[in-house]
Amino acid sequence: MLAAGVTRHFILAGVGADTIDPDAKLTYTNEYVFGLDREIMRNTTFGVRYVYRNMPQVLEDIANCPMVAYELPQTSSICGSVEYILTNPSSSIPVAPGTEFLGAHFDDPVHKYNSLEFTLNRRGSNWSTMTSYRWSRLRGNFEGFYRDDNGQSDPGISSLYDFPTNDPSYAPFYAGLNAGDIRYLGDKNGILPLDRPHQVKLYGNYAWASGFNVGAGINLSSGQPFTPFAANPNYGSDGEIPTAPRGSGIQTVDGFLKRSPFESQTDLQASYALRMNGARRVTFLADVFNVFNQKSVRYYSQNTQLDNNVVNPDFGKPVNTNLAGNPPQYQAPFNMRVGIRFEF
After folding, report:
1. CB within 8 A of 75, min separation 6: which ones?
2. pLDDT digits over 94-124, tens only?
3. Is 30 exposed, middle or buried, given 0-12, 13-18 or 19+ CB atoms closer than 10 A?
4. CA-CA distance, 141 to 186, in Å (whole number)?
5. 321 and 274 in contact (C-beta within 8 Å)?
6. To bridge 337 with a disulfide, which of 97, 101, 212, 287 should be the other Cys (CB 3.0-4.6 Å)?
7. 284-335 pLDDT, tens per residue?
């Protein structure tokens, strides 16, 4: 396979165990919450809350050679195989000596979450309602221990920082492989996969003295952002390198979309408590999920390739090309659960 006129040969990765940086520290999260709740009328409270969350430090494995350095004859002795060190990635980590001419650098991991939430709760003698609206933003280049964009569940050893991401040599060298631009992966202002700008929740409950109780819940949420991903040229694994900025959208069978469709679901719950002698009681329960049987698409394949320069025929279709175990691509259909609880 040719990239910039260079024949690509098999490249080994992780031949030896990771080297562990003795000064490395664990990933941690800061969270700051400011808010207040006030009773604005009898049995009615209004609240507002602001949340800021970030990750000042992450623990990940890295390889200090730019990806192109594994391909070039003049750097093959320096970067023969992809070997990793478990450390705290940052822009201050130097690339391998002898590869500086490629102009590559590491990026600082960034995870910034901001949200503003409003709540309104009312309560009567036998009924209650709870409502909330949340506006939020999740930006950065590090989502957490799980990569929701490609389904990689490798805490501390994901592929995010295996190579310097601020690398101007990557895109022109791998242009023939349609392998995207690794700089998008390190963009500190990228829209992360779990970003959901608008969320609304409405809950209500009513109880009768006879023992009958009914409740309803409505959940509304923005869809997930989409980013087109090419395969990693060195690994050959799909869903690795963005071909456009995070959250910029993909062409789907339903048109060009920056996000999956707005999500909404209505659920119901009912119960009836039949009292018996003493403290014994039998409760009949019923839960109904997705009352209106909505079938919106939750996910479209974002992977432009299956392997190096191998086009993914399912790109933009509502199918899951990520790792096994991911949630389904369509909203779960109408379903009901019934039960009986005996208390004594």
Report:
1. 65, 69, 98, 99
2. 999 999 999 999 999 999 999 999 999 999 9
3. exposed
4. 6
5. no
6. 287
7. 999 999 999 998 998 899 999 988 889 999 899 987 655 444 566 888 899 9
